[in-house]
């Protein structure tokens, strides 16, 4: 067998030296304070059984999609799901993608054109960065959640690029920070400057909104954006994603988004699971209310343990405690894990050097006892 290329070995060695070598974890049976399963839907029996009954009632026994959606993979559940999604999220239309990663690379590689400009928050998810990287538009980052910086940059670019379409992209809840931009100010700025606003709601779905429709709906801003990206692999507990926008946007993506066109469609049982999860959140707020109670309790315990100043302010299910340095954050997470809590270290290069952190993901199924205990353990580490 040929030797593994030396240049690649050198890169792995460098990662190891920086204490940043990624390895796949094995299931550990610890108290879950790290998954994106905010509402416990990934293990929800009712959702599982209803998904099976959706397939049963329709006599669907297929295991796979058999092809891309433009060829043989567009089974009947897609239409039903996309109608339900556009209703649920209050958008003109919805187009389902195989994942949030696919949705973002599909959108950003296809929509902004060569002469256009994309502004993105410096901390947006890798899938958005990768999509922009695949596209042909010029792109500039703006400071995290800094609408004024964005506004200044748009003005500067407008001076020389009168005819460019401008796209602005950010997240309504940041995956590695848990915080949110001032979405009202962002919408107002984009309206004034004539920019197309795109919001990734991956970590807001299921958590914000009357029925979990996301933060844009909660703020009644859903009609004021060009597009939203919603994902189903987090609070909805399944897999897949959708881009919400106008009928024209849907038609454009069907024609030009390569991550939509050149891939096999989702198997019917995945679509039935998303349908079932949407039906479940429409029928009950039980899990969402419990999650909200736990978020409030977590925040009150942060105060009680004098930990507030170490955390990035957040109202979402994601709460991050800054612990500088890969070595230290890894050690602290190991100590919490030894005490029974699954808390993951988020290390550089996933986050900027010096901004390493412990990421606490809260769930509807976490108990107050667990939350108090883990924060007590954490306070003893400082
Ligand atoms: C903000 C954001 N967008 C998109 C994605 C990708 O979604 P998916 O896991 O469905 O590929 C993630 C996943 O971590 C995310 O955090």
From TrEMBL:
Coiled-coil region: none
Stretches assigned to the Aminotransferase class I/classII large domain: 30-369
Stretch forming the signal peptide: none
Statement: the UniProt record of this protein carries the keyword Transferase: yes
Entry keyword Transferase: yes
Needed cofactors: pyridoxal 5'-phosphate
Family: Belongs to the class-II pyridoxal-phosphate-dependent aminotransferase family. BioF subfamily.
Name of the molecule in the record: 8-amino-7-oxononanoate synthase
Organism: Arenibacter arenosicollis
Lineage: Bacteria, Pseudomonadati, Bacteroidota, Flavobacteriia, Flavobacteriales
């Amino acid at each position: 067998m040929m030797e593994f290329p030396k240049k690649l070995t050198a890169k792995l060695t460098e990662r190891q030296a920086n204490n940043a070598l990624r390895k796949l974890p094995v299931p550990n049976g610890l108290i879950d304070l790290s998954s994106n399963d905010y509402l416990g839907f990934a293990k929800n029996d009712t959702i599982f059984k209803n998904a099976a009954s959706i397939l049963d009632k329709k006599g669907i026994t297929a295991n796979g999609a058999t092809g891309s959606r433009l060829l043989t993979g567009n089974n009947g559940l897609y239409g039903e799901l996309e109608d339900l999604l556009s209703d649920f999220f209050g958008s003109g239309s919805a187009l389902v993608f195989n994942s949030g990663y696919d949705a973002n690379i599909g959108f950003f590689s296809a929509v902004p054109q060569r002469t256009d400009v994309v502004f993105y928050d410096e901390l947006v998810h890798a899938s958005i960065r990768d999509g922009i990287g695949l596209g042909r538009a010029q792109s500039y980052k703006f400071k995290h959640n800094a609408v004024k910086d964005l506004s200044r940059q748009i003005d500067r670019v407008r001076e020389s690029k009168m005819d460019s379409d401008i796209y602005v992209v950010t997240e309504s809840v940041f995956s590695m920070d848990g915080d949110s931009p001032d979405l009202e100010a962002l919408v107002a700025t984009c309206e004034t400057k004539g920019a197309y606003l795109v919001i990734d709601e991956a970590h807001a779905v299921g958590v914000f909104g009357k029925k979990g429709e996301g933060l844009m709906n909660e703020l009644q801003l859903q009609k004021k954006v060009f597009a939203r990206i919603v994902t189903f692999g987090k609070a909805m507990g399944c897999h897949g994603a959708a881009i919400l926008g106008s009928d024209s946007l849907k038609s454009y993506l069907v024609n030009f988004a390569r991550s939509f066109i050149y891939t096999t469609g989702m198997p019917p049982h995945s679509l039935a699971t998303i349908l079932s999860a949407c039906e479940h959140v429409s029928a009950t707020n039980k899990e969402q209310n419990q999650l909200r109670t736990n978020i409030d309790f977590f925040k009150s315990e942060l105060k009680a343990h004098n930990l507030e100043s170490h955390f990035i302010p957040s109202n979402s299910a994601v709460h991050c405690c800054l612990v500088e340095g890969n070595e230290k954050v890894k050690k602290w997470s190991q100590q919490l894990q030894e005490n029974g809590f699954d808390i993951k270290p988020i290390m550089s290069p996933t986050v900027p050097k010096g901004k390493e952190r412990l990421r606490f993901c809260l769930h509807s199924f976490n108990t107050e006892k667990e939350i108090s205990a883990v924060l007590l353990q954490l306070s003893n580490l400082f």
